[in-house]
Amino acid sequence: MRKKPIVYFDNCALERLIDEGRSSKVLRQRAAMQVLMAIIDRGEMRFAASTWNLDEAREMSGEDRERKLPTVQRILAAASIRLDAAEGVDIANAMLQHEPRTPHRLRIRDALHLGIGVLRQVDYFITTDDRLRKWANARGRAMMLGRLRVLLPQELVGEIGHAARHEKEEE
Q1: For 116-142, how does the pLDDT look when each residue is reduced to its tens digit (9 = 90+)?
Q2: Terminus-to-terminus CA distance in the chain, angstroms?
Q3: What is the pLDDT of residues 78-119, one digit of tens each?
Q4: For residue 58, what is the DSSP state?
Q5: 18-25 long-range Cβ contacts below 8 angstroms, 24+ apart
Q6: Which of 99, 114, 139, 148 fits as disulfide partner to 105, beta carbons 3.0 to 4.6 Å?
Q7: Distance between CA 27 and CA 42 in Å, rounded?
């Protein structure tokens, strides 16, 4: 039996599920996140969440916090794998240590999310943060991230669709 992949969402991806934006980018990402959550609900993929997800959600400001926090908490409660944010600190520090001091450097919060994913051997790290995705996919970062793939929600949906079509062709 094939192992079910593990997916970890950063908070910007989770919040896309409740984002009220109407841009084509937001609509595309929201639809992709809904597809991914349906795949998780069917048991075809495992959902990992960390204490850092909840800590970040609690830091939302005023109106956003009141409106979004209960929904984010409900989404996180559905995770089948619970991760402790403290576990990723050493890996996050190692990532940050090798970062040049530029405006585009890896942010501490993102490093912690990535560190947790690397340590716990997550397959997919889903973000809607283009800057983080570009950082993770830059040349030379693959060794640092191990098997962890950093993707936009719609990229993972596309890969899953491609894999399903390929499996049907082989039957």
Answers
A1: 999 889 999 999 999 899 888 886 677
A2: 17
A3: 999 998 878 888 888 888 887 776 666 788 889 989 989 998
A4: H
A5: 18/67, 18/68, 18/71, 18/72
A6: 99
A7: 23
3-state secondary structure of 7: strand
Report the SS3 class of residue 34.
helix
Q: Return the domain boundaries, the chain.
A: 6-170
* Digit-coded pLDDT (tens) for 49-88: 998 898 888 888 878 788 888 888 999 999 999 988 788 8
CB 153 within 8 A of CB 130: no
Residues 6 or more apart in contact with residue 53 via CB below 8 angstroms: 9, 10, 11, 14, 72, 76
CA atoms of 171 and 49, how far apart (whole Å): 35
Q: How far apart are CA 106 and CA 138, in angstroms?
A: 12
**The token pair that represents 135 in the structure block:** 């950082």
Q: Let me know how many helices (H) and strands (E) the chain has, helices first.
A: 9, 5
